[in-house]
Write a structure and sequence with these properties.
By secondary structure, the protein is an alpha/beta fold. It is built from eight helices and eight strands. The chain has two domains: about 150 residues, Rossmann fold (3-Layer(aba) Sandwich); about 60 residues, no CATH class. A five-stranded parallel sheet has the order 3-2-1-4-5, covered by helices on one side. The two termini are about 10 Å apart.
Length: about 220
């Protein structure tokens, strides 16, 4: 429940994260990966948050978007943000709370979605079983062999091993540089005790430099 409660406390303040320089990179990369595919398509947004990528998917031509988020508070914000849009746009988006680990099929009629995105979804898996369950949810909701899932996950800088990456990020000089450049302070504060030692897995806390109230762990 910790993951849910931390976002309940943050609510719409989380939007500050999508105003950071890193969000511009994320937006560009996700657009390159999925925008050419979404025209007139039904798309599932498995980490809808406050409506950031759901709205972009509509802008990029998606016929409709269903947003799902672990936090009911985030879903409330997403719905409010959608209602502020043109009614013709808002009618193409709907949202509900749900856990990607146990979600199963979102559409009870089993129609599925042409594509799905999960911005910073997979990093919330606490172990290999939860990660596999997230992929099972993704697969259960995709409609056909041409469907794709686009996710944002651990940066490529970690490819040489999470232990070395964590040490590098936690170095005070690196911390200062990252805080100034990215306006967010990451802290790899503990090994993930649900993963075997030496097989990766760290718990990380991210805090907005500009709004310290926006701080969350994954």
């Amino acid at each position: 429940m910790m993951m849910v409660s931390q976002y309940h406390a943050i609510g719409d303040k989380h939007k500050v994260i999508k105003e950071l320089p890193t969000a511009l990179v994320e937006k560009s990369n996700v657009r390159v990966a999925i925008a050419p595919r979404v025209k007139d398509a039904r798309v599932l947004d498995l980490t809808c948050g406050t409506n950031f990528f759901s709205r972009l998917l509509i802008d990029w031509g998606a016929a409709s978007v269903v947003g799902v988020d672990l936090s009911p508070a985030m879903v409330v914000v997403a719905e409010r943000e959608a209602k502020a849009l043109d009614p013709a746009v808002a009618s193409r988006m709907r949202y509900h709370a749900g856990d990607a680990v146990t979600l199963g099929q979102v559409d009870p009629q089993g129609k599925g979605f042409y594509h799905a995105i999960g911005a910073w979804l997979l990093n919330y898996a606490g172990d290999e079983e939860e990660l596999a369950a997230m992929f099972a949810t993704i697969a259960a909701n995709l409609n056909g062999p041409d469907s794709v899932f686009v996710g944002i996950a651990t940066p490529p800088a970690a490819r040489d091993g999470m232990d070395a990456f964590a040490v590098k990020v936690n170095d005070p000089i690196s911390q200062k540089k990252l805080s100034e450049l990215l306006r967010v302070a990451p802290s790899y504060y503990a090994r993930n005790d649900r993963m075997p030692e030496g097989e990766g897995g760290w718990r990380v806390e991210l805090t907005s430099v500009d709004n310290p109230d926006v701080s969350f762990r994954n």
